Amino acid sequence: MVTTAVAAGTMKVAQVSSPGADFQIVEREIPKPALGHVRIKVQACGVCHSDALTKEGAWPGIQYPRVPGHEVAGVIDELGAGVSVWEIGQRVGVGWHGGQDGTCLSCRRGDFRNCRNLKISGISYDGGYQQYMVAPVEALVAIPESLTDVEAAPLLCAGITTFNALRHSGALPGDLVAVQGVGGLGHLGIQFASKSGYEVAAVGRGSENAALAKRLGASVYIDSKATNAAEELQRLGGAQVILATAPSSKAMSELFDGLGPNGKLMVIGADFDPIEVTPIQLISGSRSIQGWSSGTPVDAEDTLRFAELTGVRPMIETYPLEKAAVAYARMISGDAQFRVVLTM
Ligand SMILES: [Zn+2]
Ligand SMILES: [Zn+2]
Questions:
Q1: Minimum-distance ligand to the CA of 158?
Q2: Which of 48, 234, 300, 314 sits at 20 to 30 Å (Cα–Cα) from 163?
Q3: pTM for this one?
Q4: Is there a contact between 188 and 79 (Cβ–Cβ < 8 Å)?
């Protein structure tokens, strides 16, 4: 729903005019979709920690002013030339995977997720912090009817990242999977892990999220402030996988010894500090560390379908587009419960 009046043919946009600048709410002309693109009437857009890359200019080559946003849910309202499969009125989303070049070595291998020239919504082109956005068809995700826009939006980055990392982690149903962090990623990771048939141990700092973690599907909650979490995991037999969601390399390093034989630390929480693990820790038990980033639009559709089937839903706080600065500050504070979503 459009909450603020704008002149005909124009729209409201929350943009960043230069690295580190505050959000500006400006009016722009509604764009036309080019060849192979569609225009989306945006209904909701999640505010992700990675939007700081755009806000603070931490990603090389961003052209400003730039509109962040890669958790977009809306409706196609215009088709560019050459678009045949998608229809006006269709509900679609755009996540982190904003399009591939189709020509690099990874793409030629069919590994679009690791495209060398991956386009990212809100970084390579204007994203979802606006009333209308233009996206290439390679980026589009079909949204099932049963999910609302505000539910679907966070699943397109936080959701797919946790779900896709878990389903590629090698853990089998019944295995012990630890989810480190009960936050924006972790509260989804616990749900996806539980619904995937794993025995879930949630690891958080402090006791305040213990009851919530259990409601979300964890069978055990480990307070890493009060106990040695790695030892606690060993007491449970050792984790097959630790899904590390909280962006703290220190916490990940401390938890590594909670892995059982052939266990894997699956890293999705982005931190710039090194994870410290000795070769001996890796060698004993043949344990490993792997990183994982998001997935393709079809992986996103799998995520939405799995959420639809199993009832996995993000916990959200919503803010109107005009309050983008407040919403972003709330996300950065780490106090949001748990994903912040803008509505248009
Ligand atoms: Zn994200
Ligand atoms: Zn490529």
A1: 1
A2: 234
A3: 0.95
A4: no
